[in-house]
Specification:
Layout: E1 6-8, E2 10-13, H1 17-28, E3 33-37, H2 46-50, H3 52-63, H4 68-91, E4 99-100, E5 105-107, E6 110-113, E7 118-122, E8 128-130, H5 136-140, H6 143-149, H7 155-158, H8 177-181, E9 195-199, H9 204-217, E10 221-227, H10 228-234, E11 242-248, H11 250-259, E12 269-275, E13 281-286, H12 288-296, H13 309-317
Parallel strand pairs: 1-7, 2-3, 2-8, 3-4
Antiparallel strand pairs: 5-6, 6-7, 9-13, 10-11, 11-12, 12-13
Helix pairs in contact: 3-4, 9-13
Length: 319
């Protein structure tokens, strides 16, 4: 028997939500128990370190317009705080012995703590609990290798990228992180979640004409048609074809502004027609029916009529 062997009645392999709870429960029953985690950076498990909480933090930052480096820093501060709290919750409890390192089986009733070069022994009736987080392949793949491969990002590498180098590429991730990383710009907050993007089947000028006709036919007033490309040319610079339409119905918008004056920042409604790098005509519309209740607390009953606008725009852009 190795001189450095430690004896426990239970080993909990994986210090996640279930692992810490199980370890505390066993310790309360008088067991000598050791939760074992492969890395100090994973105390608390997958959820708080590389999954649910950090990815939702990044998505929230994107929706608020936070620059990518700031969003990553805020995410790191949050996970560091939670990691320390989880560690304290276990180490401050009388009984559990927290160990760090990979813990492969070394034989019956034995687990080897690889980094420390010692064995952990269970009694004649060992209990092993393993919480499965990222795969071994994902753990072995370093951030630099996967980022430069330009093909595959695991959840562990993607969530810790120091910058967002992606322009347009396919990302398949089974989490909220997919929403954050498919942005075509160096910032995460390229397109707020309340923006509806439609692709027109018509040319640029025809799209503008069809939109204005459809809006007018449905009782909406087009207050302005701003040619932003022309304005850019007057300023001595270049812009892709871009037209901003400002439209609305005072009968629908006035009650909203009466109840919530700040909501006037979003009214009248706006849609921008622009041409992408492949000469496809796109139309972006800020969905006020979703935006106003969330950002300004507007009662949904007041925005009910605005919910029909995206369908109106879609119909105008169809064949």
């Amino acid at each position: 028997m190795p001189p450095s062997a430690q004896h426990f009645q239970a080993l909990v392999i994986g210090f996640g939500k279930a692992g810490k709870t199980l370890a505390a429960f066993m310790a309360a029953q008088g067991w000598r128990v050791a939760p074992v985690e492969q890395s100090a950076q994973m105390y608390g498990g997958t959820c708080i370190n590389i999954a649910c909480i950090p990815t939702k933090s990044l998505v929230h930052s994107a929706e608020q317009g936070v620059p990518y480096p700031t969003a990553i820093a805020e995410k790191n501060n949050l996970t560091d705080f939670l990691r320390k709290r989880n560690r304290a919750n276990v180490t401050s409890f009388p009984g559990p012995t927290l160990l760090t390192g990979h813990a492969p089986l070394a034989g019956p009733e034995r687990v080897r703590l690889a980094e420390a070069g010692e064995e952990l022994l269970c009694g004649s009736r060992p209990h092993f609990h393993q919480h499965r987080g990222p795969t071994a392949a994902a753990r072995r793949a370093g951030p630099a290798r996967q980022a430069t491969a330009n093909l595959l990002l695991s959840c562990m590498t993607a969530i810790n990228l120091p910058s967002c180098p992606m322009k347009r590429r396919l990302v398949v991730v089974a989490s909220f992180l997919a929403l954050a990383l498919t942005s075509p710009s160096p910032t995460m907050a390229q397109i707020p979640s309340t923006v509806v993007t439609l692709q027109s089947k018509h040319g640029f000028d025809a799209t503008v004409t069809r939109l204005k006709a459809a809006l007018t036919a449905h009782g909406l007033t087009v207050f302005a048609d701003i040619d932003q490309r022309a304005a850019a040319a007057q300023a001595g610079t270049v812009l892709r074809p871009t037209r901003l339409l400002i439209f609305g119905n005072p009968a629908a918008g006035t009650p909203i502004m009466q109840a919530h004056p700040h909501a006037a920042l979003e009214l009248p409604l706006r849609a921008v027609v622009w041409e992408d790098d492949q000469q496809r005509v796109q139309v972006d519309y800020q969905d006020a029916a979703r935006l106003l209740p969330v950002q300004y607390g507007v009662d949904g009953a007041l925005t009910k009529g605005l919910a029909q606008v995206p369908a109106l725009l879609r119909a105008a852009l169809a064949d």
